[in-house]
Structure formats: C-alpha cells, structure tokens
C-alpha cells in the first residue's frame, strides 16, 4: 500500500477541521434554543442561557401547549405534508413513467411544456385568480396541489426509471401485466432510494411552507404551524394566554416561548432526517447519470 504524501495528510486534516467548524456553527444555535427553552423562568430572570439550561423547567412547553392552538396548527401541517407528498410522488411517478416510453406520441410536446415551466413562471397573480375561479380559495387544495408536479422532479424520475433494465418491464408485459401493474410492482419497488430522497425533500418543503397559506387561506383554523411560528417571531404576536391561569401568565417569558416553539416546530424533521439520509446520494446521483 503506497504511503500518502504530507500534502494529502495536511489536506485531510484541514478538511476535517473545516467540517467540524461548520458542524459547530450549525449546531450551536440549536443548542442555545434547547437550553433556553428548558431553563426555569424563575431562576433565569433576565440572564441569557448558555449551552446548559439555567435550572430546569418544562414550563415554556406547558404554557405553549395550554395557551395556544399549536396542536391544531400541528395537525394542519401534518395533513399538508402527507397529502402534498403523496400527490407529488403519485403524479410525478405516473407522468415520468409515461414519458420514459419512446412509443408514447405525446412524449416530446409534454416534455417541452415541462421545460418551459422551468424557465418561465405564470406569476402569483394569475395563480391567485385561478384559485379564485376554481373555488379553491380558503381550502387546503391551493396548499397541496400546486407543488404536486414539478418539471425538475419529473425529469429526475424519468431518468431514474430509464436506467432500470428494460427486460424486467418486457417480461412483465409478456406475462400480461399492464402499465399500472408494472409501475407499482416493478418500477417503484426498485426506486426506493429515489422515493425516499424526494419524500424527505418534499416533506421538508411543505413543512416549512408559510407563504401560500398567507395568500390562499383566510380562516386561521387552516393555518399551518409555520404561520403560527412566524406570528410569534416576526409579527411579535405571541400566543394567546387567555386560557392560562393568572399565575402562569405572570411567569411567561416571551423569548423562552419563542425558543420552545422553534424546537417543537423543527423536532419532526430532526427525527425523520437520520433515517432517510443514507438514500440521498444514491437517489439523486443515480438519477442524474443519464439524460
């Protein structure tokens, strides 16, 4: 085994040092938020929490859950994530499967239309007028449907499907399987890496989305949790404390409530990400080898 040069060893050391530094930069704010949210308001006073909580208390989380409708916003967000991800995977897979067949006569014009949408957008006003015309305003569908089919996603899916052996599809068709059966029983099971990657990408996008809800939703009961979080952090409209006892209202510290709301909001993504991370490189790179 050849010995490594001194320059390569120095490069590896600097590379590891750089990534450790970047990791600390990314993790440090999260640790501060966790520490602040777990600090005891009575002990902390006007001090700022460091990496370790000042005392220990779950008061901020209890006040947040008791004094607001955060659970309802949580439920709305989960519904948008599940529906949006399901529609994206289903519709994108169906369209990509159709476009991978060279015998499909509409392959070229549909591909051209998709490519045009990558460079030109209709804009917010036409979309808003379309939503009004279809009677979808103030419903869940303007939040879920517009992101269901994206040109980039369709191209990646189609490229990935085209790399699968043609013999598998042909043998299934000889046995009498239709296109839907081939897609569900052969193509999609062999595309787990791709599906896992885009499931996480799409779920994170829907989870972090707030602008569409502000534009297309009027009733607060339909708001996702990101709109609630934005109202706390940006508009300085904290949780309604009317349902809290007077003693609890006096103990509430707004910045601790904000920290607790941040942790509650990002917790699901932090829990799901490690399980799907291993699919990232395989799912994206394999689908981009051949155009």
Q: Please, could you describe this protein's structure?
A:
By secondary structure, the chain is mainly alpha-helical. The chain has 2 domains: 51 residues, no CATH class; 232 residues, MetI-like fold. The chain is 69% helix and 0% strand. It contains 16 helices and no strands. Helix 9 packs across helix 10. The longest helix has 33 residues. The radius of gyration is 25 Å and the shape is globular. The model has no long low-confidence stretch (mean pLDDT 81).
How would you sum up the major sheet?
none
The CATH superfamily of the largest domain bears the name MetI-like
Number of contiguous helices: 16
Q: How many structural domains can be distinguished in the coordinates?
A: 2
Mean pLDDT: 81
- The end-to-end span amounts to 38 Å
The radius of gyration is: 25 Å
Q: How much strand content do the residues show? A: under 5%
Number of strands: 0
The coarse overall form would be globular
CATH top level of the largest domain is: Mainly Alpha
Structural class: mainly alpha
Annotated CATH topology of the largest domain: MetI-like fold
Low-confidence segments, given as residue ranges, are none
Secondary structure layout:
Blueprint: H1 6-38, H2 41-44, H3 59-66, H4 70-99, H5 107-119, H6 124-133, H7 141-144, H8 151-162, H9 166-174, H10 179-187, H11 192-208, H12 211-216, H13 225-233, H14 246-251, H15 254-276, H16 280-286
Helix pairs in contact: 1-15, 3-15, 4-8, 4-11, 9-10, 11-15, 11-16, 13-15
